[in-house]
């Protein structure tokens, strides 16, 4: 089954404790992206990747890092999480980098205390 | 300036009413793509439609229809005879080239929450 898989789905952590949200897709898509969703703000792009080793900042990259060492994986790293990073995070991949629709993971709800 | 504006934050209708969700976008690209996504209460994001900038034909899929008007930079979504199961947050999105990187990126509006009551 074609899918984007994120882990963990739910996480409660404390300020400053490094965490990684993994994302993996099995559709051989070149383009992958991370979004965060907050009430009243919709979906905002954090980082995206056009291909292996090619990443770029989205609209809200502060406090996040990403890497794209393999085509299928695009982890989101929070080096020192803060309460303002409490959010619902979505990973997505795209079948055609310029024209295709996004296929989304199920979301990861992160709470930083 | 916002690239995708969904001015309606929340809409409430009674079942069987028709409802239109507005989407206005802004881009300098001549080639771009527009999308609608649905997010039901369960939280997943469901793709509904993609439209490219060269295709201004309206599209109908069952009770759903989309009206793309390049002259007004709008891509509105109409649900005919709404049902309770249509209750969800609906997002409009624009895919165009980033001014900074030159890469294509997808920008979402803030969403419209649709509540359909029985």
List the topology elements:
The complex is a heterodimer of chains A (113) and B (118).
Chain A: E1 4-7, E2 10-13, E3 19-25, E4 31-38, E5 42-51, E6 54-57, E7 65-66, E8 76-78, E9 87-94, E10 102-104, E11 108-112
Parallel strand pairs in A: 2-11
Antiparallel strand pairs in A: 1-3, 3-8, 4-5, 4-9, 5-6, 7-8, 9-10, 9-11
Chain B: E1 4-5, E2 10-14, E3 19-21, E4 24-25, E5 33-39, E6 46-52, E7 59-61, E8 64-69, E9 74-79, E10 88-97, E11 104-108, E12 112-117
Parallel strand pairs in B: 2-12
Antiparallel strand pairs in B: 1-4, 3-9, 5-6, 5-10, 7-8, 8-9, 10-11, 10-12
What brief labels describe this structure?
heterodimer; A: 113 residues; mainly beta; 7-stranded mixed beta sheet; 11 strands; 51% strand; globular; B: 118 residues; 6-stranded mixed beta sheet; 4-stranded antiparallel beta sheet; 53% strand
Describe this structure in words.
The complex is a heterodimer of chains A (113) and B (118). Chain A contains no helices and 11 strands. Chain A is globular, with a radius of gyration of 13 Å. Chain A is an all-beta fold and 113 residues long. In chain A, the strands form 2 sheets. In chain A, strands 2, 4, 5, 6, 9, 10 and 11 form a 7-stranded mixed beta sheet that branches. Chain A has a 4-stranded antiparallel beta sheet with strand order 1-3-8-7, with no helix packed on it. In chain B, the strands form 3 sheets. In chain B, strands 2, 5, 6, 10, 11 and 12 form a 6-stranded mixed beta sheet that branches. The N and C termini of chain B lie far apart (38 Å). In chain B, a hairpin with a 6-residue loop joins strand 10 (88-97) and strand 11. The A-B interface holds A 33, 35, 40-45, 48, 50, 56, 58-59, 88, 90, 92, 94, 97-104, 106-107 and B 6, 9, 33, 35, 37, 43-45, 47, 50, 52, 91, 93, 95, 98, 100-101, 103-111.
